[in-house]
């Protein structure tokens, strides 16, 4: 059941909130006939048939005479939005051999052209309605289903009805012809290419090994080049007729309107849909079957050793059982919760073993039902070095202990407290769950053939079973998790000869001794027993900032706070602390310590609390501790709740006032960096991730990824020598926005942030470190990767600016880059099929006077790199000298308008805009113009902005091509066609 987990697993505002509400809601639509197919009057909804799980009364359920089922509900998060999901019960497992990839290709073709949409009109049509391509309008194809997704912001009656009409045409009558195939197959092949490389090879071979003998073994949703190129309109029509029918369709709608309106619209546009011919039953997906000769004493089935020189070592083995439909009852879900708790106990032990300096970097177990093909328990881990046998034995030893001996009640209670805290938080935040999330939950429940439950039901069921959480019951469920018909394994290694299938099989067959050393014990820790940060701080000023009920508090020690008590997100408090100088603090040779700081600074502890103590003291609490390095400031951030806020503030203040320097987290972070170092060159995207910022910042060493030599040379003493003074520098600002008691929060701030010792000033040399942009851009930068020969990436970038003086101009740049992005997608994706998802983005640091850039990026084939260069530069020139229509502007400003309106309902949105405002009050005033700045402009203004930043269209060019290849010549005649001249 979707809501019973199997494992407890920038924008801003410009106007008052009331003025940000959508101008019109779907509730104002013209009257529709009453829906006829709702399951009311005591009828059991279709999703709850055979279940005793209490129904979530927020949902209305319906089943039409043609077999189509639907679920609808009112949800106002965010205000005005309507989230629509259409699930077709057909994925890659429903394909015949010659149809591999057809389910995914059908998804693409449905967007290409359909009964009510001309070729290529889907994207601009929904952009005009305020939906952003790729996030608000999207689809997914899995082995078991295809889901079409639309999040329609600011849904007007006309826009909502039009959306249902268009979607009905896409589902029922996509236009499947040769021109559409010719346009869309290259895009799918580009998607396949961009996902290819070593990681895909490993995924494919692992799938073939773990699911041997089942359809899942050789049916990736992306398909094969052979079947995609061989697709015909007739074959695709046959696939569509077979699977796209009302009996295979579920429509889910959650949005800010009367759910009966949604039901009526579904019935209006889908009730007369009839399938063609007799309904086809889904194929048998198959069961995991042990190979000949395997038995209970020797259950080891298929194993594989995969050698990929550029990938880190990883091992996965799975205990496989047949998947069967279940009766989704309360008893069944109590079993799932017991399973989840059992896994949590083992995973905490494995993490403890890794922290103690074990033979593996990480390890975890997870039970999962995979694609209605197997119920399996997966064990995965990363050996620290070539001694994979020891790592395997160590991981299996921890599991053997869990299977042989019951856990302690203390261990069980600790995980139960964690679960209880999570479920409590879900209840508190139920009213602010986004409609898109709720719709996805129903879709996922349908996919696994289970039900949905409201958060309070989950909490009630869990609390009702606490008496069952005993060592014996957990042991029983643990043993079941590690019992199965067959065990299969894969090992990925960069070294030839390090292992082979025979060695892996033999190692899996070895008897291991139960290892109880990782069992965690210890007295509970309370914040009440910890030393104070210092003498309570003194407030020197306190007052409103002139925006809503937000107030500023200044302390005698120089710390400043912004507080906004609001119940717009019940149960949630977002906290962000800013200090220091960010990237300005470092020198050119500090790359390794920068990367290690991001990974190990928090986990190295504070005061009396090491990593294990930090985990223990926060058990059952909603607390976090994220560390970030920004352009000119360091940040701590977390999401917490009112009752945990004081202790959350203590953690932040304690890290600054009394940092701890445990060695093991640093050594573990070094091991992680070593293991991932080589994998950065396995694909063009990996190389860009490693090197792009380095080159955009004029080869400034602060923005380089550390070399292997730098990683090896880093020491605990060096780490502390760099980071200890940085934690002491720079005035502190903290922002606390959300649902809390103001008096209690002020008292907690006085005891923590206000009690910090005086801060040291940021050194002058750090304050003056400003990143630069390369001045010589005459020749492209050419880098290489060690991945597939048909993969490349390209970037064209232009220098922009920085600082708060021109912040309104930086917002207008977002409109310009959106215009650029639409044209680039049209050229490189829609016209050429050369790139699946080219992107244009703008970076504008507001804390620095420079350092901004505009970047156009695409992954493509090597021979298309010069085409991309020329196309991007030509589009830049056209924007600077050519014409932008009002429709062009509407297609980008309306999605920006809706994005701002949606984002403005969340606390994080406000916090993001106001961080830094205690030192720079201009940020407060600037929010008042934000909506106008992002959504109102003219063609002339865009042309002037493009002329300022793009000039003649030049810019820095960077290519990442396969090793051994050279950059091809440009093809200007092709570019003329691509940009529509």
Q: Any overview of this molecule?
A:
With 981 residues, the protein is α+β, with helices and mostly antiparallel strands. The protein has four domains: 24-38 and 57-270, Cytochrome Bc1 Complex, Chain A, domain 1 (2-Layer Sandwich); 300-509, Metalloenzyme, LuxS/M16 peptidase-like (Cytochrome Bc1 Complex, Chain A, domain 1), CATH 3.30.830.10; 541-767, Cytochrome Bc1 Complex, Chain A, domain 1 (2-Layer Sandwich); 781-978, Metalloenzyme, LuxS/M16 peptidase-like (Cytochrome Bc1 Complex, Chain A, domain 1). It contains 33 helices and 23 strands. Strands 12-13-14-18-15-17-16 form a seven-stranded mixed β-sheet, sandwiched between helices. A hairpin with a 6-residue loop joins strand 12 (539-544) and strand 13. Helix 3 (122-128) packs across helix 28 (886-903), helix 12 (409-428) runs antiparallel to helix 14 and helix 27 packs across helix 33 (972-978). The radius of gyration is 29 Å and the shape is globular. The two termini are 54 Å apart. Mean pLDDT is 93; it is low at 1-29.
Main β-sheet, spatial strand arrangement:
12-13-14-18-15-17-16
Instruction: Please tally the β strands and state the result.
Output: 23
What fraction of the residues are assigned to beta strands by DSSP? 15-25%
| The CATH H-level homologous superfamily of the largest domain | Metalloenzyme, LuxS/M16 peptidase-like
Number of domains: 4
Distance between the ends: 54 Å
| CATH architecture name of the largest domain | 2-Layer Sandwich
Helix/strand class: alpha+beta
Could you describe the largest sheet, including whether it forms a barrel?
Answer: 7 strands, mixed
As a percent range, the share of helical residues equals 25-40%
Low-confidence stretches: 1-29
- Quaternary structure: single chain
Q: Count every helix, treating DSSP H or I runs of 4 or more residues as helices.
A: 33
Write down the CATH class of the largest domain: Alpha Beta
Q: Could you report the average pLDDT, rounded to the nearest whole number?
A: 93
Approximate shape: globular
Query: Rg, please?
Result: 29 Å
| Annotated CATH topology of the largest domain | Cytochrome Bc1 Complex, Chain A, domain 1
